[in-house]
Amino acid sequence: MADELVVLADSSKFANSAGHAVCDLSKVSTLITDSNLAPAAEEVIRKAGISLIKAEV
Q1: Structural domain count, the chain
Q2: Structural domain of residue 34, as residue ranges?
Q3: Which one, out of 2, 7, 12, 53, has a CA that is 20 to 30 A from the CA of 37?
Q4: Which is nearest to 31 in space by CA: 13, 2, 12, 5?
């Protein structure tokens, strides 16, 4: 099993709720996304203790 789970997803993936989940948020250690991430989504990610990397677009 992997020691770390890194997710790469553009900010649009956080705009709407989906009917399914790939994994529980608590399993993610690092999230890489773009700089258009909404402040509310960023707050949820940081409060979950996930390392956040935002790429400028």
Answers
A1: 1
A2: 6-15+22-55
A3: 2
A4: 5
pLDDT digits (tens, 9 = 90+) for 28-56: 999 999 999 999 999 999 999 999 999 99
**pLDDT single digits (tens) 1-12:** 779 999 999 999
Q: C-alpha distances in angstroms, 1 versus 15, 29, 42, 57?
A: 30, 14, 27, 33
The answer to whether 46 touches 31, Cβ cutoff 8 Å, is: no
In degrees and rounded to multiples of 5, residue 5 shows phi and psi of -115, 120
- Is this prediction's pTM over 0.90? no
Locate 38 and state its tokens. 């909404």
Q: Say how far residue 55 (Cα) sits from the centre of its chain.
A: 13
Six-digit token string for 5: 């789970």
